[in-house]
Amino acid sequence: MSKMWAGRNAGVTDSLADDFNSSIRFDCKMYKQDILGSIAHAKMLCKQGIISETDAEQIENGLLSILEDIESGNLQFDMSCEDIHMFIEAELTARIGEAGKRLHTARSRNDQVALDVRMYLRDESKKVTSLLEKLISVICDKAEEGACAIVPGYTHLQRAQPITFGHHLMAYSQMFLRDIGRVRDAVKRMNASPIGSCALAGTTYNTDRSFEADLLGFDGVCANSIDGVSDRDFCVELMSAYALIMMHLSRFSEEIILWSSWEFKFVELDDAYTTGSSIMPQKKNSDMAELVRGKTGRVYGDLMALLTTLKGLPLAYNKDMQEDKEAIFDSLETVIMCLEIFAPMVATMKLKKENMYRAAQEGFINATDLADYLTKKGMPFRSAYKITGEIVAECIEKNTVLDKLPLEAYRAHSDIFEDDLYREISLETCVSKRISEGGTSVESVLKQISLVRAAVEGTK
Questions:
Q1: Between 20 and 30 A from 366 (CA), which of 68, 144, 332, 427?
Q2: What is the pTM of this model?
Q3: What would the pLDDT profile of 369-422 be if each residue is shown by its tens digit?
Q4: Residues 181-196: pLDDT tens digits?
């Protein structure tokens, strides 16, 4: 089959080279953006008097009929075509004849593919932000449920201070809020139309690039035609945002995996999001969380692959840039798939509050509050820190905890200690007195939930 670029070349290539060169098997997903971009291009050409109204009308009707047939399943992609652009143009010409051959006036596949990718990613990124909003809403609901549940807070995976489970969950809501902002910032920078840049140098036709950009919902046009066809910063930036989303999902997954283990038993995952063992009947494996954690490496790899592809390319367009689509599409689809499974997994997760509290009673996580008790009575913090450490060592030696050590033992270290110390170092007091903004008190957590919910509404 002769190619549309036949002329200088015979247009006949080896079948293996054809397959190696072809991108239709993965860029066919951009059919809608290609068609809408072509309709806008035809309208611009007509407005500028470059093609006739009759030709423009035929082109638009022909393209809309192709769109309808693809979406109804009546038209299948021809995998012998080089790419989606050539498939649609060939199909259009077959349907409307000579008018179809005029569509490609004043554009190149270089700016056409740059346009399609931007439009596709702009559309698909709305799915990502919508799924992030849904996940944040689920986190807020679950944090409200656990707003009073006391649990150990950890540093270095060692029990550190008492917090509420709701407070812990709300940390993830902040991460995902930032992720929404990053995706939207990237889309905003991406939203400049490259069409009209042509191969690299622009065109001799009197085109109106701004008119075409407006029709397609862009904020403006790429100011330099070379940059218009060779820029893939927007792919890298979006993939960086996707990689951060996956990092946050992976950290959350790791904690869910730990929390649902017998060693923690802070949560129980719904059966719908776990699997069993083929040999051990007692097992309930957190496979969905593990897969999300595993797929994070895949998204990182996509990002590094594209960065490596782009790093040595001279301006302007090079065929290497065809490699952008498989990487960005895989990254995007992986993020969407993980977000789709993650929200219901968290929503159906049962909190084991008794186990959380039992764990919080161990590990001397109220030691900081004991030191604060002394400093509030006038002792310098470093002295209070040293005495508290000695008391912890004594508790370990006597196999007891701070709450149960007799007052006489405390007073042996300092006569500042009084009966009120037990109230001050109770887990409930430790949590409720964390009144600083963003802290772990119940009131603070409920305020955080309210602010996050308002922020999500404000991002829509």
A1: 144
A2: 0.91
A3: 999 999 999 999 999 999 999 999 999 999 999 999 999 999 999 999 999 999
A4: 999 999 999 999 999 9
Q: Could you read off the pLDDT of 235-253 as tens digits, one per residue?
A: 999 999 999 999 999 999 9
**Residue 360, Cβ density class (10 Å: 0-12 exposed, 13-18 middle, ≥19 buried):** buried
Confidence category of residue 1, pLDDT binned at 50, 70, 90 = very low
CB count, 10 Å around CB of 298? Answer: 12
Look up residue 51 and give its two tokens: 């093609």
> What is the per-residue pLDDT for 276?
77
Active site (annotated) includes residue 286 = no
For residues 221-241, give the mean pLDDT: 97
Active-site pick, 2, 72, 156, 436: 156
Q: Which of 80, 277, 383, 450 is catalytic?
A: 277
Residue 399: burial class (beta carbons within 10 Å; 0-12, 13-18, 19+): exposed
Q: How big is the chain by its Cα radius of gyration, in Å?
A: 30
Residue 156 annotated to the active site: yes
Mean predicted lDDT score pLDDT of the chain = 94
